[in-house]
Write a structure and sequence with these properties.
GO terms for molecular function: nucleic acid binding. InterPro entries: RNaseH_sf. It comes from Methylobacterium dankookense. This protein is mostly helical. The protein has one domain. Helices cover 56% and strands 0% of the residues. α2 crosses α3 and α2 crosses α4. The longest helix has 17 residues. It is flat, with a radius of gyration of 19 Å.
């Protein structure tokens, strides 16, 4: 691989180690994916409706908890 990359006059860049800062996003997407699987939408319009409906299941408090659980500032003010 090194030879092929060098022959292409390119260089390898290594990704950063896993970032715990991605956790709020991962938790929210895990919930979103579960809701979309449950909806079982099979057409574009149905999928758009399922996504729109899925977002109604995210409360501001829950989103704040995703962020707080990842170790970010817990002084966030969230309207309830």
């Amino acid at each position: 691989m090194r030879e092929a990359v060098g022959a292409a006059e390119a260089r390898r860049l290594y990704l950063l180690p896993y970032s715990p800062g991605l956790n709020p996003i991962e938790n929210a997407f895990a919930k979103l994916k579960a809701l979309l699987r449950t909806a079982a939408a099979r057409t574009g319009p149905d999928l758009r409706d399922a996504i729109r409906n899925a977002f109604t299941h995210f409360t501001p408090c829950e989103c704040r908890n995703f962020i707080t659980a990842a170790g970010y500032d817990d002084d966030l003010t969230v309207a309830t």
